Amino acid sequence: MKRPLNFAVVGCGMFAQSFHLPNINRSAKAKLHVCCARSDATLNLVRDKFKPVRITKDYRAAIADPAVDVICLSTTEKIRLEVIEIAAEFKKPVYCEKPLARTLAEMYEIRKVVQQSGIPFCVGHNRRSSPAMVAAQKIFRQHMANPKPCLWRFDREGKDRPVLAEDGVAGMSVRINDDWWSWKGWVFDKEQAPHGAMLFEMTHFTDVCNWFLASEPVEVIALENGMLNHGIVIRYAGGEMATISMSANGTFGYPKELYEVFGNGAAVVVDHMLEIRTAGIEGVPARQTFPMIRDEFPGIGPELGLSGWLKKRAAACQEAVEKNNTALVLRPEPDKGWAHQLDAFVDEINGEGPQVCGVDDAIRATRIAFAAIKSSHKRRVVPVAEV
């Protein structure tokens, strides 16, 4: 058996404390070795709660530690390039949170550093590792590669049906319901996050569209209303289309993400990574459900899926009011893939698995976001090649 890889986590804020640090501690493939943060209070908290071998404020020292095998980079985008350059100097693999960078120039410089050093590199587009999303993407790509039309498909014109060039070509719809009251203060800082949610959230969903549609994005058109409402349309080289609608004036009392993808007379729908629904694909279940994480209400909504989650979330909302702690509404959550992605990256590093989400995939998703930002500002269609 290979030993677990020792991780240095650089940036130990709320996100790392909620996901990366506990996931490393729970993994059989990873071990928490160093926690690095700027704040004494944060370092003391993570030392006591997550028990790293050591703590430090010096990220160069954390990376240079000969016992460290992998860097988990969970800082804001502002210092990621510098940290990645140090990791490359010491030939240490890097798991980097998304978005990859604040600017296109930084993004391309990161790619150059990664490619020249040859270090394994993974960007945290974690939906690619969610069990529900993995299953749905596999179902859809297999159907697109080998479509088997259902015998009941309504065929009005039969042999007189016209021939259309775009027959069967995939289309995708993504709906995001968020609540901006939950956002951290730095997202409103124009120096720290100059493009707002159009970058720091959008790249999740552009990456998912690229992954499902398996085509090269060509052009983007977008509209936004301040930070909280966005809509974009992406056209791909094969004629595929994706639409993404984001609203941050929504509620955590309802699922955040709905993915609907269509092609070759079929539909694959993923509701908040809780359940998959399909239609028009022979031999595939019409509905599959998936386990949740942080489920403290096992006796409520035992049927799982969307209906089970709604019942559990309603119970969490009630408890949040009773205990005067609104953070309690965040239970339970769908499995968005963070832990699976970390383990898959360890496999990639050990040569036992494929690339999880490399720098080129991240750049492709991020370029769409930058094209959308430019489209919204210029009020026109923007070719992806333009950015």
Verbal overview:
The structure is a single chain. With 387 residues, this protein is an alpha/beta fold. It folds into 3 domains: 5-119, NAD(P)-binding Rossmann-like Domain (Rossmann fold); 128-149 and 165-283 and 377-387, 2-Layer Sandwich (Dihydrodipicolinate Reductase, domain 2); 291-334, no CATH class. It has helices spanning 14-26, 40-50, 59-64, 80-89, 104-117, 131-145, 197-200, 202-213, 305-322, 338-349, 359-378, and strands at residues 5-10, 30-36, 54-56, 70-73, 94-96, 121-123, 171-177, 217-225, 229-236, 241-247, 257-263, 266-271, 275-279, 287-289, 292-293, 333-334, 382-383. Strands 14-13-12-11-7-10-9-8-17 form a 9-stranded mixed β-sheet. Strands 3-2-1-4-5-6 form a 6-stranded parallel β-sheet, sandwiched between helices. A two-stranded antiparallel sheet has the order 15-16.
Walk across the major sheet and give the strand order.
14-13-12-11-7-10-9-8-17
So what's the overall shape?
globular
Q: Summarize the main sheet.
A: 9 strands, mixed
- The count of strands amounts to 17
CATH class of the largest domain: Alpha Beta
Q: Stretches where pLDDT falls below 50 for ≥5 residues?
A: none
Mean pLDDT: 95
Our estimate of the beta-strand percent is 15-25%
The total tally of domains equals 3
Order of helices and strands: EHEHEHEHEHEHEHHEEEEEEEEHEHHE
User: What is the assigned CATH homologous superfamily of the largest domain?
Assistant: Dihydrodipicolinate Reductase, domain 2
For the record, the CATH architecture of the largest domain stands as: 2-Layer Sandwich
Gyration radius from CA atoms, angstroms: 22 Å
- DSSP helix count? 11
**Per CATH, what is the topology of the largest domain?**
Dihydrodipicolinate Reductase, domain 2
Helix content: 25-40%
Termini Cα gap: 46 Å
Structural class: alpha/beta
